[in-house]
Amino acid sequence: MKAIDADDVSSNPSTNLHLNQVAAMVYSRRDVLKAGLAFGAVGFFGAGLSACDRSDAYPLLGFKSVAANSGDDVVVPEGYRHTVLCRWGDPLFADSPAWKGDASENAAAQALQFGDNNDGMRFFPLGAGNSREGLLVMNHEYINPEYFFTPDVQSGDTPWSQDHVRKSQHAHGVSVAQVQRQADGSWQVVVGAPYNRRIHANTPMELTGPVRGHEQVRTTASPAGESSLGTINNCGNGYTPWGTYLTCEENFNNYFGTTSGEDIRSPLMRRYGVSAAASEYRWEERDDRFDYAKEANESNRFGWIVEIDPFEPSSTPKKRTAMGRFKHENAALRLAADRRVVVYMGDDQADDYLYKFVSDATYDPALGDAENKARNLLENGTLYVAKFGAGAVSGDMMGDGQWIPLRLDTPAVAGGTLGDLYPDMGALLIATRLAADAAGATKMDRPEWVAVHPKTGEVYCTLTNNSGRSTTDDVNPRQKNVYGQIVRWREAGGDAAATSFEWDLFVLAGNPAAHDAGTLEAGSSNVNADNMFNSPDGLSFDADGRLWIETDGKYSNTGDFAGMGNNQMLVADPHSKEIRRFMVGPSACEITGISFTPDQRCVFVNIQHPGEYGGHPNQPETTPQQDPLAFSRWPDNGAGGRPRPATVVIWKADGGKVGT
Ligand code: FEO
Ligand code: CA
Ligand code: CA
Ligand code: CA
């Protein structure tokens, strides 16, 4: 059956409501779903929002889909090339020691090398439109101890030392690296370039915004509460129109614990998941900052978004507290109609929230980057949290929504206002999650990356999975959600600063080969046996409006996940909703971080934790300590002695735009 052109029915929001009302009279939820599956684009997604700019560049997807696989390599479409640009441990500076394949380097060496587990990333051209040379800025989220330390450290034969803690701290944070395209199309790091920089868990930073100087961020190292040391668990990223990079602190809680033997965590620490005793990374054993019994306010200095100027290597990174404290995934910017800066942000935890920040001051395109930078636009503004409504019909996976401001005068669901719970905005922002609880926000299926369509301004967010969900709603429609979905919304009047919106699900990931058609587990009509995936995570638009989707999911390739293979990157056409698999990663990795050259001829992608131990589908009897190459030999086919997270660059051999 010919699909109705989505533009025909949904460019006018009032038409959506009309169709919803008709649907309410005719269909139950399951009937609507079946209709959607049977009739392709018609049905429960057919009347949804549409990314409706069709003026150019169609068809958007021109490459031949890559088959799912469980191999140990990066696989790209026919006619594409790829190269490994940089890996954990590679040199950045003239005096960086070479990486040792046995993981025996010390903390001082690690501070001069690329960090571990690269995640969010942005290519900043050196000169407007330069697609051959730029600064590649990337996050280093965490370490995999099984590969990061020598076996004697992991087994406990060698005592845990301060150098081990420092080495781990130095592998976190951010790298700034000048990179250059070569004559053969590949890319290289310019080792020793003046812009090159490592920012890690001990780099001095400034606290800005309402939390600066607050009593809850005063510590031994910073009695005034105006500075902070370091950034950790840097997950996704953002970037600003004035040339700065935003790094997002996610699971900071995993670095805080205590050796005191007592669980004396505050309710605030518990809400954010600070470890009761030993932390995952054991820093508290050799660094008092990370023992919450010794330094009660230190954890309040993490969970923020940090603004970094990559073009000023000596600049002090700024923590932007007005954007809230939670497990920040990434940050997607858009200008409001009046040019206030709007930042969309997810809090990646099951049943946590989706936020947006609206700046007080406005961006001025007539000014240069330096002038806009000096305005500190992210320093003050209003933080909102999303409340999703069902709209006219329950169960049709579309609806309406409201942005609730998190201010002292905001009503609390239980009565009174947020001002009854928090004495000032600093205290409220430090407890952002608890304030959002009190305000009645919608509990989501782990909001990961947000991306804004460059032409329509519609906003998309990956909801990666939520296997513990028991109560469903329109936007989180499945119990025990193992596959995830992508929601998109359109702000009222097309203005990013609006306080209401309309939304629909762009895709409900699922497995149509493992589950009966018509079940929610089979996925939406744009999921099929050739493109299925689970746990969408990284998300980005290119300038033409292609939606690039990266996964961080189950790679067992059995049961619910049979036929999906390793984690992957897909490309979607927001208009037709077609999704095609563009790339498959090596064994047990996650695909994350994405950025394009200005000419869209190259895409930079991160391969995180190849060979990750735990949950490996073909778990060998050995451990990574015994045989580091048993789980993955990528990217050096064993030459490096162990798998390594790395950045790859992909380009089209004929010089065309990637994705075409
Ligand atoms: Fe660091 Fe939610 O991914
Ligand atoms: Ca609805
Ligand atoms: Ca992620
Ligand atoms: Ca994830």
- Quick check: average pLDDT? 92
How many domains, as an integer?
2
CATH class of the largest domain: Mainly Beta
CATH architecture title of the largest domain: 6 Propeller
Overall shape: globular
**Estimated radius of gyration:** 24 Å
The first-to-last residue Cα distance is: 27 Å
Tell me what the structure shows:
The chain has a 9-stranded antiparallel β-sheet, with no helix packed on it. A 6-stranded mixed β-sheet has the order 8-7-12-11-10-9, with no helix packed on it. Strands 2, 3, 4, 5 and 6 form a 5-stranded antiparallel β-sheet that branches. The chain is globular and about 65 Å long. The chain has 2 domains: about 5-55, no CATH class; about 80-250 and about 305-650, Neuraminidase. The chain has 11 helices and 30 strands. The two termini are about 25 Å apart. The protein is α+β, with helices and mostly antiparallel strands and about 650 residues long. The protein binds MU-OXO-diiron and calcium ion (CA) (3 copies). One calcium ion binds near residues 391, 393 and 474.
Question: How does the SSE layout of this entry go?
Answer:
Elements: H1 6-10, H2 13-26, H3 29-38, E1 80-87, H4 107-110, E2 118-125, E3 133-140, H5 145-148, H6 151-155, H7 162-170, E4 173-181, E5 187-189, E6 197-199, E7 204-208, E8 227-229, E9 234-239, E10 245-249, H8 267-272, E11 305-308, E12 318-320, E13 332-335, E14 340-346, E15 350-352, E16 354-362, H9 369-374, E17 381-388, E18 398-405, H10 425-430, H11 432-439, E19 444-445, E20 447-452, E21 459-463, E22 485-491, E23 500-508, E24 536-541, E25 547-551, E26 568-572, E27 579-584, E28 590-596, E29 602-608, E30 646-652
Parallel strand pairs: 7-12
Antiparallel strand pairs: 1-30, 2-3, 3-4, 4-5, 4-6, 7-8, 9-10, 10-11, 11-12, 13-14, 14-16, 15-19, 16-17, 17-18, 18-23, 20-21, 21-22, 22-23, 24-25, 25-26, 26-27, 28-29, 29-30
One calcium ion binds at residues 235-236, 329, 448, 537, 552, 592.
